Structure formats: structure tokens, C-alpha cells
Amino acid sequence: MYILPGKLRAELKKPLGELHESFRNIDVGDSFLITVGDVTTRNALEHGLKPDISIIDNRIQRRDSDHEFNDTATIIRSTNPPGTITEDLWNSIKKAIDGARAGERFMIVVDGEEDLAVLPSILMAPADTVILYGQPDEGVVLVRAIETRKRAEELIKNFEEA
Length: 162
Fold this sequence. Notes:
Helices cover about 30% and strands about 30% of the residues. It is α/β, with parallel strands linked by helices. A 7-stranded mixed sheet has the order 2-11-10-3-4-9-7, sandwiched between helices. Strands 8-1-12 form a 3-stranded antiparallel sheet. It has a two-stranded antiparallel ribbon with strand order 5-6. α4 (about 120-125) packs across α5 (about 145-155). It is globular, with a radius of gyration of 14 Å. About 35% of the residues are buried.
């Protein structure tokens, strides 16, 4: 398990990619698409995007959410306490990536918090992957895995291992 140290919290509040105010100008083309977060996933689906993998926790800004996703993706359940990246979450993302590369779509439902799932997604996803995640009160961040992989590796190296 990786634990987010306090010294990295401010760094991870900065966007890892391009910040967009809305989905209006986002074009992911034919890229492999991963969405992280309930609002981001809902907005992506409402804008006609079909994520290969969605990662949600049924919470919006740390408050329970009872929204329903009209999506036909296969559900994978994972456990990941706040401020961590568990082996269970890593394995769930890996399983979803392997299945999605074969043409299936997945939704990982996290018991805990999904915020840090962006990092293992960047590290394990195919090179052509676009990852979308929410930047609270600012918009949506578009991350190109191939361009951000080294940064994600540097960040993970600074996590505490348990």
C-alpha cells in the first residue's frame, strides 16, 4: 500500500495535465479513455464519451452521492481508504485495463476514495490513453498518459510504503 505523505498534498492539488473549464472543448479522439471521479464520469457520459474505464466512489467532494450511471460497463469493486493507493486498487485497475484492451468496458467502484487512482492509471495504461479527472471548483483535467508517466513515477516514489 502507498500512503500519501503530507508534503505531497499541495503538489497533487495542481493539475497533472491540461485544465479545461468544461467538457465543451475536450476532444479525446480515438484514445483509450479513463475517467476518474463521479462528476467527471457523469459529465463524460452526458457529452457522449464512452470511457473504456471509469473509476468512481459514489461520493462528490467527500459527500455521499446517490446518482445512477446509465452505463453498461462491467463493475469491479475495490477498496481504497482516503490518502492511499492499495494493492487492491492497483490490481483492479490492471484487471480493467487488460479487459478493456480486449474490447470490454469497466467501471471500478471504490469503497473509500478514488482520487489517487489517476497515478496508477497513468502508469499502467496504454500509451495512447487520455485520463480525465475533476479539479474541484475549476473544471476537468485532461492527462495524456505517455506525456505524464515520468511525473507519475516521481510522485509515487515519494509516497510512503506500508
